[in-house]
Specification:
By secondary structure, the chain is an alpha+beta fold. Helices cover 46% and strands 9% of the residues. The strands form 2 sheets. Strands 2-1-6-7-4-9-3 form a 7-stranded mixed β-sheet, sandwiched between helices. Strand 1 and strand 2 form a beta hairpin. The protein is elongated.
């Protein structure tokens, strides 16, 4: 005799909830599972009947690496970091102005670029406006990456939110048992156990950094350089060992059982079993049991949606920034590409006390503006000459003799571009105190030189 009688069970209504069992909410479930390594303690909070079990099993079952698992879960055998969105995003191109390194940076450089886009305080510099561009300065100090779990502890209110779906799922189990709908009770409990077990096993991996080159060669020049995007640029300044984590480093997940990851395969198999059993037997449950099943799935889906809204990339960026020592960001908006190129040259040359044969302003200008015409060649030669001149005030004016052989339209263009260079230089002089204050790198660690700049501050 059931503890209480549910009148709706006397009807012939069948909700046909089988389609909900494995497909509904799959994307949200995958996004929620991707946060399990970004918070310490999150792995203990997966005990609920999550929807989308089949989609989750297909996604994470690809981690299991053997002929057997490849047959069950076909697809590329990615690394754990790639599967969980901690690696794989293409970064911008990095060019070291002293070292000559020219390479495509990886996921961590991508996160750095995303961080610069969040800056609200932007210093707008004057000049002739064509297409506004930005230049962001990051000075990285003495970075010591700690090889331990980098994830922050989950906050109390997040943990309390996780208690809601867990409580609702357990309550639906109790109500199904009280009404003696043991089939619905067993299927909800199966979802709770498979979801909790998978979350615990997958979440047992430890988030860490792979810093790239562990120990640069003695005498390696500073790794000052630029991260180049289509319109914007990020200037990174610091020692080789401090910039390496950004340009060559990556997140890694230290997961036991590699490279086969059999436990991940077993968890995925459990999720597939959950999907099949719920698909076949939920229609056989009572109407009340089906309602309880839908209630447990709805509560779980709502919590998964909340976890999906936490923006994993932002959490990754915060973890990276903390590991780098929370370097300061200084962002400038310039009115055109020519001014941006000159401004970047001046910033990279800031701090050089002695002329460096490795720092060639003309190469920097060429990297930004590679137009191979007579006007642009003369412009680069004139600007580079002035940037390399450490004696007194710089002049970007051309004499009438310099302009011989140019047509009227070429003269107009050249004068306009040189005016852009002058505007960038003047803006740099106005902001040099900010650029100097933004740097806190030890002169002993990073020998640098300094353009002589007549600051009006």
């Amino acid at each position: 005799m059931p503890a209480f009688i549910v009148p709706i069970n006397q009807s012939n209504i069948n909700l046909d909830t089988s389609g909900v069992a494995g497909f509904f909410g799959g994307d949200e479930a995958i996004s929620a599972m991707a946060t399990v390594h970004l918070y310490r303690g999150r792995r203990w909070l997966g005990w609920y009947n999550s929807p989308g079990s089949y989609i989750v099993a297909k996604k994470f079952g690809q981690l299991a690496n053997s002929r057997f698992w490849d047959g069950l879960f076909p697809g590329p055998n990615l690394t754990p970091a790639e599967v969980f969105g901690l690696d794989g995003k293409p970064g911008p191109r990095y060019w070291g102005v002293f070292s000559g390194t020219d390479m495509h940076a990886g996921h961590l450089a991508y996160l750095v670029v995303q961080k610069t886009k969040e800056i609200e305080e932007v210093i707008v510099l004057g000049g002739r406006e064509t297409i506004p561009v930005t230049a962001t300065i990051i000075d990285v100090g003495d970075v010591i990456l700690k090889h331990s779990d980098q994830a922050p502890v989950m906050s109390i209110h997040h943990a309390l939110l996780a208690a809601i779906p867990i409580t609702i799922n357990l309550a639906t189990c109790v109500l199904c048992a009280a009404s003696e709908d043991w089939l619905a009770f067993a299927l909800i409990l199966l979802g709770i156990i498979s979801g909790g077990t998978s979350c615990f096993v997958i979440g047992s991996a430890q988030l860490d950094f792979l810093a790239g080159v562990k120990e640069p060669s003695p005498g390696t020049p500073p790794a000052d350089g630029i991260l180049l995007m289509r319109n914007d640029v990020v200037i990174v300044r610091g020692a080789e060992k401090d910039i390496n984590p950004i340009t060559k480093g990556s997140f890694i997940l230290r997961m036991d059982g590699g490279p086969e990851y059999r436990r991940i395969g077993l968890c995925s198999l459990l999720l597939v079993a959950q999907f099949l059993l719920q698909l076949l037997f939920i229609p056989q449950a009572t109407t009340f049991g089906q309602i309880m099943f839908i209630s447990s799935v709805a509560a779980s889906w709502a919590y998964n949606s909340f976890l999906s809204s936490l923006e994993p990339e932002k959490i990754q960026t915060d973890i990276l920034w903390k590991a780098l020592g929370n370097p300061r960001l200084l962002k400038f908006e310039l009115k055109n590409r020519a001014a941006q190129a000159v401004f970047v040259c001046l910033v990279l040359g800031h701090g050089i006390r002695e002329p460096s044969v490795d720092f060639k302003p003309k190469k920097v200008l060429q990297r930004f503006l590679s137009n191979d015409t007579r006007v642009w060649n003369v412009w680069r030669d004139k600007v580079a000459e002035q940037l390399e001149n450490n004696e007194g005030k710089k002049s970007f004016d051309l004499s009438s003799r310099d302009l011989q052989g140019f047509g009227d339209h070429e003269r107009i263009l050249l004068k306009s571009l040189l005016r852009d260079a002058h505007d960038a230089y003047r803006s740099y002089q106005d902001q040099v105190y900010r650029i100097r204050d933004n740097s806190y790198i030890s002169e002993k660690e990073v020998p640098r030189s300094d353009f002589i700049v007549q600051s009006r501050v």
